[in-house]
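Sample A.
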Amino acid sequence: MPKAATKALSEEATQKLEAQIPAQASLATRMAYEKAKAAGRTVVLSKGGFIVTEWCSSAIDALERLATHP
């Protein structure tokens, strides 16, 4: 099998790709949330300083208050 040519990205190209990571991660998280809710699943997330459970019925239960940092 022939070897694929490997070419390193420039520093600028690497920085541009790395700058996209937060937005891509946020989009993937939102899509997973929407998919779970559409499938009627329960999700656990952070909301208003609490860890909460969102049930498929749209009811919300607070599980635990998040710690605050001074």
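Sample B.
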Amino acid sequence: MSSVSSAYFTVAAAASSCPRRTTCARKGGIMVSIPERYIVGWDGSPGATAALDWALAQSRGTHTKVHLLHAVLAIPPGPYGEVALDQGVYDDIAQAVLALGIDYAKEHAPDVTVTTERAYRGVTGALMDAARPHDVIVLGTRGYGGFMTMIVGSSCIQAATHAQVPVVVVHPQENSHPSYASAGPVVIAIDGTDLSKQAMQFGLMMASLLHREAIVIHAWTLPPVEIVPPSFIAADEAAAIAAEQQRIAAEFLAGWRSEFPDVKVTLRVIQGNTAAVLLEAAKTASLVVTGSRGRGEFRGAFLGSTSNALIHHAGCPIAIVRTEQPAVAKQQPVAA
């Protein structure tokens, strides 16, 4: 695991007796490290404003900073004699856009420390460069650079796929009461394997910080059969599979409750398509946390199908947590 992504997962969340933004010891000597900065991809669009709103809401009453990053990709001279803009023009535009963000933050969360940065490169690369251990990247579903027919911009997808730190994707809200402002639970998706550990730890940490219940969901489906459809699998066999899935999820969850004693943790083992199950849970959630890959995901995909479905269709913020795939041993050549 890289030094950036591993930084979150060597620690556990603090008990409720600790201040909300503090690194403090708990029983067993385990320390907590919560986000130092929420890095918001900022361009002044409704999507970016939704991301900034979320970051400010999480930072209120804490020492976590909000860092506004505006990426400017300079246009080179064209092949037909077009003249590139002077660097000073780009500087002025970036300064004006960042000033809008600063003014918005001062109006809505004057107690939150806000810093700014402008980068002269593509959005995704700028975010990757800016992210440090213990940061969280926060993005709107689409900025001004996105095609209007797309639900989620390419920068959002790329960041969720490649970032070494958690990425939170926030949809603009159609009303004045965003879903994350409710007392809804933090929903955490697991698949019962080690690939879920990072998502589990980040999700429980956020539940602890937000004083919310954690709903841990393990969705499963009957295995495919060659001759008969799954609905014709014998009832006793289906019951055995369900019991096994319950056991896998319970074993995975064992120990996490003691690491986060201040968080009420509820396990739900549900038969059904993972994306569909999580989208239903997202209707009442304040945050859904999932890994970037899971069992059953096509490893060559641009983004795991479950994560992709969530960031496109869920009505609440989605946290995509980097999942480390186990190393695959190289096959040794067979002697002739």
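B remarks: Strands lie at 37-41, 65-71, 114-119, 135-140, 167-170, 186-190, 214-220, 265-271, 287-291, 318-321. DSSP finds ten helices and ten strands in the chain.
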